Amino acid sequence: MRAKFISLVIIFQLLSLNESFPTNFKCNESKQSAEYVSDVRNYVNEMSEYFNTRSTPNLDLSTIGLGFLRDDELSSSNGISYRHILSLNLSLNVLKFISFGLILQYPNLQDLDLSRNCLTSLEVKYRLIFQNLSTLNVSRNFILHIHPFVFSNLSLEVVDLSHNHLIRFLAADFSLNRLHINDNKLTHLEIDSGHHKELQLLDAS
User: By the 8 A CB rule, do 125 and 150 touch?
Assistant: First the structure.
């Protein structure tokens, strides 16, 4: 009973910290104060540590203003790797790039939600982050460019690129099962599945 009470206290404290973050972030805002950076870093690490030990390995870091922080500000100060976190929600932040410092703390991540952020491109270097994922959601960003090989020969099964600003989409050695690329501005769509099986679902409406 005491352990359950302590867990409820911890959850209340974490939720209270989350509610203290402003929610009206914009993509063109400048870097936040040192106090804010410290609060966000502490929140990320405390939430990660807490949910890393729970039976439901889903971590929600949405709506806390991630995106103003550098990789070294996001990384855990004690170098901890949260191996039991399988699902990470980073939606509704202001991420302009995908932080290696944050993502690499979750080496067994399978599902990554980056929807409703400020991403403008998916560069080939992100393959390192995507390599173990099953699902990736980057819908409702401002993506204009995707490198043709960023999804090549990965274990990804489902990718959601809907509601972006894509005009062209070229993909080589594509091994996805489902691709959602609807509600873009596509004039050219070319997918080479190579020796992989064909897409089961392509939504390009």
Answer: no
* Cβ-contact 196, 172 below 8 angstroms: no
Angle between the N-to-C axes of helices 2-19 and 34-52, in degrees from 0 to 180, rounded to the nearest 10: 150
Under the banding of pLDDT at 50, 70 and 90, the label for residue 8 is very low
CA distance linking residue 34 with residue 155, whole number of Å:
38
Rg of the chain on CA atoms, in Å: 18
In this predicted model, what pLDDT tens digit does every residue of 52-71 receive, in sequence order?
777 668 889 898 877 766 66
Give me the percent of the chain exceeding a pLDDT of 90: 33
Distance of CA 128 to the CA centre of its chain: 13
Distance CA 173, CA 202 (A): 16
What tokens appear for 27 in the block? 């993509």
**Dist. CA 140–CA 114, nearest whole Å:** 9
List the single range of 53-62, 146-155, 191-200 with lowest mean pLDDT. Answer: 191-200
The closest alpha carbon to 10, from 41, 51, 38, belongs to 51
